[in-house]
Amino acid sequence: MAPRREGGRSPPPDEKVLVIQPLPGIGDMVWFIPHLRAIAAATPAKRISVLTKSRSFAERLVGHEDFVEEFIWIDHRHARAHPLRAVGEIAAALKARRFSRVWIMHHSPRYALAAALAGIRERVGYGTAGLQRLFLTDKRHLPREARLHGAVERADALLRLHGIRVEDRDLHVDPDALRRIRARFGDLPRPWVGLGIGSSDPRKCWPLDRFAELAGRLASQGPWTVFLCGAEHEADAARDIARSARRRGGAPVVAVDLPLEQSVALVSDCRLFIGNDSGLMNIAASVGVATVGLFGGGVILDYRENLHAVVPDGLAAPSMEGISVDSVLGFIERQGLAPCACKPAPRSRPND
């Protein structure tokens, strides 16, 4: 059911809705996909447009679904040096599309200002910053302290204020990508284990020799297949890990040459995923796979029950160096997450 407006008015049947989610990473977009889907389901057309950054790879994550009408990219060069010019560019792009309602999933006032300049008559946002509230027309704001909450918690709270429930929190797998992965790797022994070797932040990367040791030791524990998962620019690192792992008795499969849709499909077919805090780790958690995240410091994510954190071994200054292979394998054993023990991911995706 579509949410009702303040004062009891229902949304017009021709409502054209935009959601602004400008966080740049793949992991950021994965967090918000359930909210985008829920907002779309609450509109008469069941579709929305999304303004975001191309580094989110949003079209690759949800392009096979039908709830997004259009992606609008905001990778303009003036955002930092000339923020007001960037606001004007965004406003011009939005005005041409004649949106009637916008959801702003960010605390910055500049996106609310751009929406106001574009003439979008109904503007919904967090409102945790006082300046943003000046440009919002819907007065159902989050309290200021909500700015300190996690991204998922904050988005959940905003939708609840507007009577929208997030029913489906899974990342849906492209069925064509899943077929391609099974055609390419289907003869390899199961269960499969994915190792997420990369991250956009070097400080979040586990040393490569630890991944090599982990791959070798996993090989000694069962007949499963270990995949080295990551982006194409991590190919050299993956090959180094594979060579070192072979000297330790392992034979991991290098799988960093896949388009993102197929990487999602491969991870979704794994029984266990172990990796750095990265987009792929968030993808693994969001497709329901038992996921062990390696967190050397900073924020530890726990927004899914199947996402488990391994942290450094009692160092005064936490770092990825403080996470040993023994601690990872010991955690997996204690939690019953060994590939032969943990359950397959729930099959909410198509054609399983």
Describe the overall structure.
- This protein has helices at 26-41, 58-62, 83-95, 109-117, 130-133, 151-161, 175-185, 208-219, 235-247, 260-268, 279-286, 325-334, and strands spanning 17-20, 48-52, 68-73, 101-104, 122-125, 192-196, 225-229, 253-255, 272-276, 290-294, 307-310.
- It has two domains: 6-161, Glycogen Phosphorylase B (Rossmann fold); 175-334, Rossmann fold, CATH 3.40.50.2000.
- It has twelve helices and eleven strands.
- Helices cover 34% and strands 14% of the residues.
- Strands 8-7-6-9-10-11 form a six-stranded parallel beta sheet, sandwiched between helices. The chain has a five-stranded parallel beta sheet with strand order 3-2-1-4-5, sandwiched between helices.
- It has 352 residues and is an alpha/beta fold.
- Strand 4, helix 4 and strand 5 form a beta-alpha-beta unit.
Keywords:
elongated, alpha/beta, 352 residues, six-stranded parallel β-sheet, single chain, Rossmann fold
Concise synopsis of the structure shown:
The protein is of the alpha/beta class. The chain has 2 domains: 6-161, 3-Layer(aba) Sandwich (Rossmann fold), CATH 3.40.50; 175-334, Rossmann fold.
Instruction: Identify the CATH class of the largest domain.
Output: Alpha Beta
| Structural class by helix and strand composition | alpha/beta
End-to-end Cα distance = 30 Å
Compute the number of structural domains.
2
CATH third-level topology of the largest domain: Rossmann fold
Widest sheet: strand order?
Answer: 8-7-6-9-10-11
Which spans of ≥5 residues are poorly predicted at pLDDT below 50?
A: 1-9, 347-352
Instruction: Say how many strands there are.
Output: 11
Give the % helix.
25-40%
User: What is the CATH architecture annotation of the largest domain?
Assistant: 3-Layer(aba) Sandwich
Taken as a percent bin, the fraction of beta residues is 5-15%
